[in-house]
Amino acid sequence: MRVTTLGGATHYPRPGNACSGYLVQSGDTTIWVDAGPGTLAELQRHVQLEDVNAIWISHTHADHTSDLLTAYYAYRFGDVEPRPPIPLFAPTALRERLVDFLGGSAETGLDLVFGFADLGASPAGGSAVIGDLTLSWRAVDHDVPGFALRVDGPDGSFAYSGDTAPCAALDELAAGCEALLCEAGAAGHDLGEKAAHHTPEEAGATAARAGAGRLIVTHVALGLSGEEAAVRAQTRFDGPVELARPGTIFVVERTAPVAG
Ligand SMILES: [Zn+2]
């Protein structure tokens, strides 16, 4: 299984760093995970639009979803081979938001392009098989309904926090995974604040509790460099800590993990 970082910028995209988006691939199967601004363009460095077998969205914030708007135009009106609707796993509110934004005939058009599946349909989470890969998700602890993802494939397992404060659902979902991609969107927490993100230390602690083989830090808080975040995460986790730099491809396998 390969995990490609399309971008991991926090709040807004920068030159050379899109917001959150990843490709998870195994064999002929390609899943686009989060569609932050800039990720549709970056995705085309690695695969054709026709190659995407499913899209999975952690929560409705624009830094994880806004490229779905332009993906809609690409798949509906672009030079992409006609194809059946792409399974789109997303929180309930997303479909309505896209319809509102696109307006007009978008409601019918959206259903031609995307096959919506509601991540929140069951409080216990859910799962789906897409080609070589089994996706499983659980609701996590963000300031809007948010979900974390686990992907199991023939070569191993991978987990992604989405945006969330540390929580038991993420620990359980990520348990024993070969690689955990975890956000570190908080530099620290104010006293009494309801947290919506991990600090880097908390990302390390989540990886340790889950027994992850390695930790990949992403979505790093403003004011922190990726390197600082990795060093802080490492204080709470004994395994390898890496950074989700744009374009980095992580090979996820059961033995001898390799970062490319
Ligand atoms: Zn975010």
Please describe what this structure looks like:
The chain has helices at residues 39-43, 62-65, 67-77, 93-102, 106-113, 168-174, 200-210, 226-234, and strands spanning 2-9, 18-19, 21-26, 29-33, 54-56, 86-90, 114-118, 126-130, 133-139, 147-153, 156-160, 179-184, 214-220, 241-243, 249-251, 258-259. The protein has one domain: Metallo-beta-lactamase, Chain A (4-Layer Sandwich), CATH 3.60.15. It is an alpha/beta fold and 260 residues long. The strands form two sheets. Strands 1, 2, 3, 4, 5, 6, 7, 15 and 16 form a nine-stranded mixed beta sheet that branches. The protein has a seven-stranded mixed beta sheet with strand order 8-9-10-11-12-13-14. Helix 6 (168-174) packs across helix 7 (200-210) and helix 7 (200-210) packs across helix 8 (226-234). The model has no long low-confidence stretch (mean pLDDT 94). It contains eight helices and 16 strands. Helix 8 links the parallel strand 13 (214-220) and strand 14 (241-243). Zinc ion (ZN) binds at residues 20, 61, 63-64, 163, 219. Residues 29-219 form the Metallo-beta-lactamase domain. This is MBL fold metallo-hydrolase. InterPro entries: Metallo-B-lactamas, RibonucZ/Hydroxyglut_hydro. GO terms for molecular function: 3'-tRNA processing endoribonuclease activity. It comes from Leifsonia poae.
